[in-house]
Here is the input.
Amino acid sequence: MSGVAILFVLALGIGGTLALYALIAGETSNPEIVDRETAERKARERGGRRGAADGTSTADDDTDDRWGERDDDRWGERNHER
Here is the structure.
């Protein structure tokens, strides 16, 4: 009985993989080729990055100078003298 369960799980895994592959292949089989200006316009129409229309997007800006530092002083390290 456990052999049947193993075969079922394997068949389910392989079938799921093939189904996913078929779905992705269907989505990418006939891509629309457009120039950059048209692509940017379509991206804005579909809800692209904020500020992309006027070139003021801050999505790639690294404005947080303290990236990776803890603000909550969780372990009390600021109170210990070194």
